[in-house]
Amino acid sequence: MDRRSFGKGAVGLGAASFLANGAAASSSSDEDTVPPLMGGSIVDVPGVKLGHHTLSSRPTGCTVLLCEEGAVAGVDVRGSAPGTRETDLLDPINAVQQVQAILLSGGSAYGLEAATGVMRYLEERKLGFQLRSGVVPIVPAAILMDLGVGDFTIRPDAEAGYKACLAATSDPSPEGNVGAGAGATVGKMFGSAFAMKGGLGTASFTVPGTEVVVGAIVAVNAVGDVYHPLSNRMLAGARAEDGKGFRDTISAIMNGHRVVRSPGANTTIGAVATNVPFDKAQMKKIAEMAHDGFARSINPIHTMSDGDTIFALSTGKASVEADVSAIGAIAALVIAQAVARAVIQAESLPEYEIPAHRDYPGRI
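Given the sequence above, the corresponding C-alpha coordinates read:
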Protein backbone atom coordinates (compact mmCIF):
# COMPACT_ATOMS: atom_id res chain seq x y z
CA MET A 1 0.00 0.00 0.00
CA ASP A 2 1.15 3.50 -0.80
CA ARG A 3 1.63 5.04 2.67
CA ARG A 4 0.58 8.42 1.33
CA SER A 5 -2.76 6.99 0.25
CA PHE A 6 -3.49 5.52 3.69
CA GLY A 7 -7.07 6.41 4.46
CA LYS A 8 -10.49 5.23 5.44
CA GLY A 9 -10.02 1.48 5.11
CA ALA A 10 -6.79 1.08 7.03
CA VAL A 11 -7.65 3.43 9.88
CA GLY A 12 -11.09 1.89 10.24
CA LEU A 13 -9.67 -1.63 10.35
CA GLY A 14 -7.05 -0.69 12.92
CA ALA A 15 -9.61 0.79 15.28
CA ALA A 16 -12.08 -2.01 14.64
CA SER A 17 -9.42 -4.58 15.53
CA PHE A 18 -8.78 -2.90 18.86
CA LEU A 19 -12.47 -2.58 19.63
CA ALA A 20 -13.09 -6.20 18.73
CA ASN A 21 -10.33 -7.33 21.06
CA GLY A 22 -11.77 -5.17 23.83
CA ALA A 23 -15.28 -6.52 23.28
CA ALA A 24 -14.03 -10.09 23.39
CA ALA A 25 -12.24 -9.47 26.67
CA SER A 26 -15.21 -7.74 28.26
CA SER A 27 -17.54 -10.63 27.40
CA SER A 28 -15.48 -13.13 29.39
CA SER A 29 -17.47 -15.45 31.62
CA ASP A 30 -15.03 -14.79 34.45
CA GLU A 31 -16.48 -11.80 36.33
CA ASP A 32 -13.06 -11.02 37.78
CA THR A 33 -11.49 -10.69 34.33
CA VAL A 34 -11.45 -7.08 33.25
CA PRO A 35 -10.03 -5.81 29.94
CA PRO A 36 -6.71 -4.03 30.54
CA LEU A 37 -6.65 -0.32 29.98
CA MET A 38 -4.71 1.17 27.10
CA GLY A 39 -1.17 2.33 27.85
CA GLY A 40 0.93 5.03 26.29
CA SER A 41 0.81 8.79 26.57
CA ILE A 42 -0.11 11.82 24.53
CA VAL A 43 3.62 12.45 24.08
CA ASP A 44 3.69 9.39 21.81
CA VAL A 45 2.36 11.81 19.19
CA PRO A 46 5.44 13.28 17.46
CA GLY A 47 5.71 17.01 18.06
CA VAL A 48 4.05 17.07 21.51
CA LYS A 49 5.77 17.66 24.85
CA LEU A 50 4.04 17.48 28.22
CA GLY A 51 4.85 19.28 31.45
CA HIS A 52 3.24 19.65 34.87
CA HIS A 53 3.62 21.87 37.89
CA THR A 54 1.96 20.68 41.09
CA LEU A 55 1.72 23.11 43.98
CA SER A 56 2.95 21.83 47.34
CA SER A 57 0.86 24.19 49.48
CA ARG A 58 -2.46 22.61 48.49
CA PRO A 59 -3.63 20.02 45.94
CA THR A 60 -3.75 21.96 42.66
CA GLY A 61 -1.57 22.58 39.65
CA CYS A 62 -1.39 22.98 35.90
CA THR A 63 -0.45 20.92 32.87
CA VAL A 64 0.89 22.20 29.56
CA LEU A 65 1.10 20.63 26.12
CA LEU A 66 3.92 22.24 24.16
CA CYS A 67 3.90 22.14 20.35
CA GLU A 68 7.04 24.13 19.68
CA GLU A 69 6.80 23.69 15.91
CA GLY A 70 3.12 24.66 15.97
CA ALA A 71 -0.04 22.58 15.73
CA VAL A 72 -3.40 23.02 14.04
CA ALA A 73 -6.07 23.01 16.72
CA GLY A 74 -9.79 22.79 17.31
CA VAL A 75 -11.94 22.80 20.43
CA ASP A 76 -15.37 21.72 21.62
CA VAL A 77 -16.77 23.15 24.85
CA ARG A 78 -19.74 21.46 26.52
CA GLY A 79 -21.44 21.54 29.89
CA SER A 80 -22.74 24.81 31.28
CA ALA A 81 -19.93 26.12 33.49
CA PRO A 82 -16.82 26.45 31.29
CA GLY A 83 -13.71 28.47 32.03
CA THR A 84 -11.60 28.99 28.92
CA ARG A 85 -9.14 31.29 27.15
CA GLU A 86 -8.45 31.87 23.45
CA THR A 87 -11.03 29.35 22.25
CA ASP A 88 -12.68 31.74 19.77
CA LEU A 89 -9.54 31.96 17.67
CA LEU A 90 -9.78 28.19 17.06
CA ASP A 91 -12.99 28.72 15.09
CA PRO A 92 -12.21 27.61 11.51
CA ILE A 93 -13.31 31.00 10.11
CA ASN A 94 -10.73 32.89 12.17
CA ALA A 95 -7.25 33.81 10.98
CA VAL A 96 -4.76 32.18 13.35
CA GLN A 97 -3.91 28.73 12.02
CA GLN A 98 -1.62 27.25 14.68
CA VAL A 99 -1.13 27.13 18.44
CA GLN A 100 2.12 26.70 20.33
CA ALA A 101 0.66 25.30 23.54
CA ILE A 102 -2.48 24.17 25.34
CA LEU A 103 -2.88 24.79 29.07
CA LEU A 104 -5.03 22.74 31.44
CA SER A 105 -5.22 24.16 34.95
CA GLY A 106 -6.82 23.88 38.35
CA GLY A 107 -7.80 26.97 40.31
CA SER A 108 -11.03 27.79 38.49
CA ALA A 109 -10.93 31.09 36.57
CA TYR A 110 -7.92 32.21 38.62
CA GLY A 111 -5.95 29.35 37.06
CA LEU A 112 -6.16 30.97 33.63
CA GLU A 113 -3.34 33.23 34.84
CA ALA A 114 -0.98 30.29 34.36
CA ALA A 115 -1.27 30.84 30.60
CA THR A 116 0.68 34.09 31.05
CA GLY A 117 3.67 32.06 32.23
CA VAL A 118 3.34 29.75 29.23
CA MET A 119 3.36 32.80 26.96
CA ARG A 120 6.49 34.11 28.66
CA TYR A 121 8.27 30.81 28.16
CA LEU A 122 7.36 30.73 24.46
CA GLU A 123 8.19 34.40 23.85
CA GLU A 124 11.66 33.90 25.33
CA ARG A 125 12.18 31.26 22.65
CA LYS A 126 10.61 33.41 19.92
CA LEU A 127 7.80 30.92 19.36
CA GLY A 128 4.38 32.24 18.40
CA PHE A 129 2.40 34.18 15.81
CA GLN A 130 4.99 36.18 13.94
CA LEU A 131 4.72 39.98 13.89
CA ARG A 132 7.19 42.54 12.60
CA SER A 133 8.30 43.47 16.11
CA GLY A 134 8.12 40.05 17.78
CA VAL A 135 5.88 37.08 18.42
CA VAL A 136 2.55 36.49 20.13
CA PRO A 137 2.38 32.92 21.48
CA ILE A 138 -1.03 31.32 20.99
CA VAL A 139 -2.01 29.48 24.18
CA PRO A 140 -5.64 28.36 24.46
CA ALA A 141 -6.52 27.18 27.96
CA ALA A 142 -9.23 25.55 30.05
CA ILE A 143 -9.65 25.30 33.79
CA LEU A 144 -11.37 23.07 36.31
CA MET A 145 -12.81 24.01 39.69
CA ASP A 146 -10.79 22.55 42.59
CA LEU A 147 -10.99 25.50 44.99
CA GLY A 148 -13.04 23.46 47.45
CA VAL A 149 -10.04 21.27 48.29
CA GLY A 150 -7.86 23.18 50.77
CA ASP A 151 -7.05 26.89 50.89
CA PHE A 152 -9.21 28.77 48.36
CA THR A 153 -6.56 31.50 47.96
CA ILE A 154 -3.91 29.11 46.60
CA ARG A 155 -4.14 28.49 42.85
CA PRO A 156 -1.85 28.15 39.83
CA ASP A 157 -0.39 31.45 38.63
CA ALA A 158 1.93 32.65 35.87
CA GLU A 159 4.96 31.20 37.63
CA ALA A 160 3.26 27.80 37.80
CA GLY A 161 2.62 27.91 34.05
CA TYR A 162 6.23 28.84 33.37
CA LYS A 163 7.51 26.00 35.57
CA ALA A 164 5.22 23.52 33.80
CA CYS A 165 6.86 24.54 30.52
CA LEU A 166 10.34 24.09 31.99
CA ALA A 167 9.32 20.58 33.03
CA ALA A 168 7.89 19.69 29.62
CA THR A 169 9.37 16.60 27.98
CA SER A 170 8.54 13.88 25.51
CA ASP A 171 9.18 11.24 28.20
CA PRO A 172 6.31 9.21 29.71
CA SER A 173 4.25 11.26 32.15
CA PRO A 174 3.18 10.62 35.73
CA GLU A 175 -0.59 10.33 36.26
CA GLY A 176 -3.07 10.74 39.07
CA ASN A 177 -2.36 13.52 41.59
CA VAL A 178 -0.27 15.65 39.29
CA GLY A 179 -0.64 18.95 37.46
CA ALA A 180 -4.20 19.91 36.61
CA GLY A 181 -5.44 16.70 38.24
CA ALA A 182 -3.86 17.30 41.67
CA GLY A 183 -7.04 18.61 43.32
CA ALA A 184 -9.60 16.97 41.05
CA THR A 185 -12.51 15.02 42.54
CA VAL A 186 -15.45 13.04 41.13
CA GLY A 187 -18.90 11.90 42.24
CA LYS A 188 -20.22 15.18 43.64
CA MET A 189 -23.89 15.03 42.68
CA PHE A 190 -24.83 14.54 46.34
CA GLY A 191 -22.27 16.93 47.77
CA SER A 192 -18.51 17.01 48.20
CA ALA A 193 -18.73 15.02 51.44
CA PHE A 194 -19.37 11.91 49.35
CA ALA A 195 -16.80 12.63 46.61
CA MET A 196 -13.77 10.56 45.61
CA LYS A 197 -10.42 11.51 44.13
CA GLY A 198 -10.19 12.29 40.43
CA GLY A 199 -6.90 12.97 38.69
CA LEU A 200 -4.91 13.23 35.50
CA GLY A 201 -4.72 10.42 32.96
CA THR A 202 -3.19 9.90 29.54
CA ALA A 203 -3.15 7.19 26.86
CA SER A 204 -2.32 6.66 23.18
CA PHE A 205 -3.06 4.31 20.30
CA THR A 206 -1.00 3.59 17.18
CA VAL A 207 -2.95 2.18 14.25
CA PRO A 208 -1.30 -1.19 13.46
CA GLY A 209 0.95 -1.18 10.42
CA THR A 210 0.95 2.59 10.11
CA GLU A 211 2.63 5.65 11.59
CA VAL A 212 -0.73 7.10 12.69
CA VAL A 213 -0.83 7.94 16.41
CA VAL A 214 -3.71 9.34 18.47
CA GLY A 215 -3.11 10.38 22.08
CA ALA A 216 -5.20 11.90 24.85
CA ILE A 217 -4.79 13.58 28.21
CA VAL A 218 -7.59 14.35 30.67
CA ALA A 219 -7.95 16.04 34.05
CA VAL A 220 -11.01 14.35 35.53
CA ASN A 221 -13.00 16.54 37.92
CA ALA A 222 -16.51 15.36 37.09
CA VAL A 223 -19.74 15.78 38.99
CA GLY A 224 -20.61 12.28 37.75
CA ASP A 225 -19.28 8.79 38.41
CA VAL A 226 -16.38 7.27 36.44
CA TYR A 227 -16.65 3.85 34.77
CA HIS A 228 -14.29 1.42 33.10
CA PRO A 229 -15.02 2.06 29.40
CA LEU A 230 -14.93 -1.64 28.43
CA SER A 231 -16.31 -3.51 31.45
CA ASN A 232 -18.66 -0.70 32.57
CA ARG A 233 -17.66 -1.30 36.19
CA MET A 234 -17.70 1.79 38.37
CA LEU A 235 -14.20 2.93 39.27
CA ALA A 236 -14.94 5.99 41.40
CA GLY A 237 -17.92 8.16 42.17
CA ALA A 238 -20.41 9.27 44.76
CA ARG A 239 -20.02 7.15 47.88
CA ALA A 240 -22.88 5.65 49.83
CA GLU A 241 -24.01 7.61 52.88
CA ASP A 242 -22.19 5.22 55.21
CA GLY A 243 -19.00 5.84 53.23
CA LYS A 244 -18.77 2.21 52.16
CA GLY A 245 -19.21 1.37 48.51
CA PHE A 246 -20.70 3.41 45.71
CA ARG A 247 -24.08 5.09 45.58
CA ASP A 248 -24.50 4.88 41.76
CA THR A 249 -25.51 8.42 40.89
CA ILE A 250 -27.81 7.63 37.98
CA SER A 251 -29.73 4.96 39.89
CA ALA A 252 -30.09 7.30 42.86
CA ILE A 253 -31.40 10.13 40.67
CA MET A 254 -33.89 7.83 38.96
CA ASN A 255 -35.11 6.70 42.38
CA GLY A 256 -35.84 10.27 43.39
CA HIS A 257 -32.82 11.12 45.53
CA ARG A 258 -32.26 14.84 45.69
CA VAL A 259 -29.03 16.18 44.26
CA VAL A 260 -26.92 19.01 45.64
CA ARG A 261 -26.62 21.99 43.33
CA SER A 262 -23.02 23.06 42.90
CA PRO A 263 -22.72 25.28 39.82
CA GLY A 264 -19.21 25.41 38.38
CA ALA A 265 -17.66 23.19 41.04
CA ASN A 266 -16.53 20.50 38.65
CA THR A 267 -15.44 20.19 34.98
CA THR A 268 -13.41 17.60 33.09
CA ILE A 269 -10.89 19.07 30.65
CA GLY A 270 -8.49 17.48 28.21
CA ALA A 271 -6.94 17.25 24.79
CA VAL A 272 -6.44 14.77 22.00
CA ALA A 273 -3.56 14.92 19.55
CA THR A 274 -2.59 13.19 16.33
CA ASN A 275 0.29 13.37 13.87
CA VAL A 276 -2.08 13.14 10.89
CA PRO A 277 -2.35 16.43 8.94
CA PHE A 278 -5.77 18.09 9.27
CA ASP A 279 -7.16 21.62 8.98
CA LYS A 280 -8.94 23.59 11.71
CA ALA A 281 -12.44 22.51 10.69
CA GLN A 282 -11.43 18.87 10.77
CA MET A 283 -9.79 19.29 14.17
CA LYS A 284 -12.97 20.84 15.53
CA LYS A 285 -14.87 17.77 14.35
CA ILE A 286 -12.35 15.47 16.03
CA ALA A 287 -12.76 17.46 19.27
CA GLU A 288 -16.54 17.03 19.01
CA MET A 289 -16.27 13.28 18.46
CA ALA A 290 -13.77 12.94 21.30
CA HIS A 291 -16.49 14.01 23.76
CA ASP A 292 -18.08 10.61 23.13
CA GLY A 293 -15.19 9.25 25.21
CA PHE A 294 -16.39 11.31 28.17
CA ALA A 295 -19.89 9.88 27.73
CA ARG A 296 -18.54 6.32 27.73
CA SER A 297 -16.62 6.75 30.97
CA ILE A 298 -18.43 9.45 32.99
CA ASN A 299 -22.10 9.43 33.94
CA PRO A 300 -23.73 11.91 34.09
CA ILE A 301 -21.61 14.18 31.89
CA HIS A 302 -22.02 17.69 30.40
CA THR A 303 -24.23 18.85 33.27
CA MET A 304 -25.08 22.36 34.45
CA SER A 305 -22.26 21.98 36.97
CA ASP A 306 -19.61 20.94 34.42
CA GLY A 307 -17.71 22.99 31.85
CA ASP A 308 -16.28 20.04 29.94
CA THR A 309 -13.78 21.04 27.25
CA ILE A 310 -11.66 19.06 24.79
CA PHE A 311 -8.96 20.52 22.56
CA ALA A 312 -7.77 18.64 19.48
CA LEU A 313 -4.27 19.06 18.03
CA SER A 314 -2.65 18.00 14.77
CA THR A 315 1.13 18.22 14.57
CA GLY A 316 0.98 17.16 10.91
CA LYS A 317 4.14 15.08 11.17
CA ALA A 318 2.73 11.92 9.58
CA SER A 319 3.43 11.35 5.90
CA VAL A 320 0.00 9.74 5.38
CA GLU A 321 -3.58 10.92 5.13
CA ALA A 322 -6.48 9.52 7.14
CA ASP A 323 -10.23 9.89 7.38
CA VAL A 324 -11.31 12.52 9.91
CA SER A 325 -14.20 10.38 11.18
CA ALA A 326 -11.91 7.42 11.80
CA ILE A 327 -9.45 9.54 13.78
CA GLY A 328 -12.35 11.09 15.70
CA ALA A 329 -13.62 7.63 16.59
CA ILE A 330 -10.19 6.58 17.84
CA ALA A 331 -9.89 9.85 19.77
CA ALA A 332 -13.12 9.08 21.64
CA LEU A 333 -11.83 5.63 22.53
CA VAL A 334 -8.50 6.99 23.79
CA ILE A 335 -10.20 9.75 25.80
CA ALA A 336 -12.35 7.16 27.58
CA GLN A 337 -9.25 5.16 28.44
CA ALA A 338 -7.43 8.25 29.76
CA VAL A 339 -10.41 9.09 32.00
CA ALA A 340 -10.28 5.63 33.57
CA ARG A 341 -6.52 5.81 34.01
CA ALA A 342 -6.88 9.17 35.78
CA VAL A 343 -8.94 7.74 38.65
CA ILE A 344 -7.10 4.42 38.83
CA GLN A 345 -3.77 6.21 39.20
CA ALA A 346 -5.09 8.77 41.69
CA GLU A 347 -4.19 8.65 45.38
CA SER A 348 -6.40 9.60 48.29
CA LEU A 349 -6.21 12.91 50.14
CA PRO A 350 -6.69 11.73 53.75
CA GLU A 351 -6.27 15.23 55.17
CA TYR A 352 -9.41 16.23 53.26
CA GLU A 353 -11.17 12.87 53.77
CA ILE A 354 -11.21 12.15 50.05
CA PRO A 355 -10.61 8.46 49.26
CA ALA A 356 -9.39 7.13 45.92
CA HIS A 357 -10.22 4.15 43.73
CA ARG A 358 -7.28 2.21 45.15
CA ASP A 359 -8.84 2.42 48.63
CA TYR A 360 -11.67 0.15 47.47
CA PRO A 361 -10.18 -3.39 47.34
CA GLY A 362 -11.32 -5.51 44.43
CA ARG A 363 -12.77 -2.59 42.47
CA ILE A 364 -11.41 -2.30 38.92
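Helices lie at 8-26, 114-124, 158-166, 249-254, 280-297, 324-345. Try to locate this feature in the C-alpha coordinate string yourself.
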